[in-house]
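>> received
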Amino acid sequence: MRQYEITFIIDPVLSGDEIKETAQMYLDFLKNEGCELVHTTEWGLRHLAYPINKRTSGIYTTVEFKVPTGEVISKLELGFRRDERIIRFLSVKLDKYGVKYNDDKRNGLIGRRKEESTENAAEA
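>> returned
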């Protein structure tokens, strides 16, 4: 099975319910296409590196999923292009190193030292 990761940015002008509906619509689409959802991360409101369509921020969502063939990617990207609520998207096919990195990050093996060092500094 192939593993993919898609990050998309939703227009922040929408209401909270519309933002959740938009993200859920694409998650349901992936499930209906036979994808196995591995992990979903909602980053929330973030500033963009540069303005897009006169917007300086957006709601980021990342979905990691497994699928037998990559045919679903073209359908999903077409949906993103047609949807005015989506500012930008990026789809990436993960190799074995990307899969391991994401697993390690979810399990707390990556990024832990920085947190521990700040905790030690706060205790002292």
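>> The chain is about 40% helix and 40% strand.
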